[in-house]
TrEMBL record:
Residues 80-202 form the GST C-terminal domain. PANTHER family: GLUTATHIONE S-TRANSFERASE (PTHR11571), HEMATOPOIETIC PROSTAGLANDIN D SYNTHASE (PTHR11571:SF224). The keyword Transferase applies. Its EC number is 2.5.1.18. GO terms for molecular function: glutathione transferase activity. PROSITE patterns: GST_CTER, GST_NTER. It is an enzyme of class 2 (transferase). The keyword Transferase applies. The lineage of its organism: Eukaryota, Metazoa, Ecdysozoa, Arthropoda, Hexapoda. It catalyses: RX + glutathione = an S-substituted glutathione + a halide anion + H(+). This is glutathione transferase.
Length: 209
């Protein structure tokens, strides 16, 4: 049975799941909705959130929970409880980076938004990237335990997403992270998905305004 993923026509919190399905060679239907479609769909759902994933005979919500589910099944959640914990810590830190920055992006046009976006690019994102740069060096080219985990997939997704939102290569000053991101992007399944996925809208606020 083909997995169905419903999300907005943008990367956001849908893209980590798309990438996880791609890297695990799981066939899926990529259902992308607009603002009007979402307003009609929202009242019919168990939880008023997207992404929504239909797989294994269940309807699943919450992006990180779905990614963990896929990772466990695919062996991308570490090989011990300690490794799983390190993956969770890394994932939560990546989520901190996303939340502390997109909160400014999704504001209406204003001087406050401009200042928040500038701070995100100049201060907040580099702060987190320095942490990941060090972590990458300590873990032999991956973020946890010297091997591929779903934390690496999330790094690719979030960095790609933030670069598209802020219209800047956030990894430009971090050559090791940029090389690492490309390594993950070139993984079988992911590479093919990135080549065929639809482009990101110029302004992702259109889905929420």
């Amino acid at each position: 049975m083909v997995v169905k993923l419903t999300y907005f026509a943008m990367p956001g919190l849908g893209e980590p799941i798309r990438l996880m399905l791609a890297v695990t060679k799981t066939e899926f239907e990529d259902i992308r909705v607009g603002k009007e479609e979402w307003q009609k769909l929202k009242p019919t759902l168990k939880l008023p959130y997207l992404p929504m994933v239909e797989m294994d005979g269940k309807t699943l919500f919450q992006s990180m929970a779905v990614c963990r589910h896929i990772a466990r099944k695919a062996g991308l959640y570490g090989s011990s409880e300690d490794e799983a914990l390190e993956i969770d810590v890394t994932v939560d830190t990546l989520e901190d980076m996303r939340k502390h920055t997109v909160s400014h992006y999704y504001q209406p046009d204003s001087e406050e938004r401009d200042q928040g976006m500038k701070k995100s690019v100049d201060v907040t994102i580099p702060f987190f990237l320095k942490l990941f740069d060090k972590q990458l060096e300590e873990n032999k080219g991956y973020l946890v335990a010297g091997k591929l985990s779903w934390a690496d997939i999330l790094f690719l997704s979030h960095c790609d997403y933030l670069s598209s939102l802020f219209h800047v290569d956030i990894l430009a000053d971090f050559p090791k992270l940029k090389e690492y991101q490309q390594k993950i992007a070139d993984l079988p399944g992911i590479k093919e998905w990135l080549e065929k996925r639809p482009p990101t809208p110029e302004d992702c606020r259109i889905f929420f305004s």
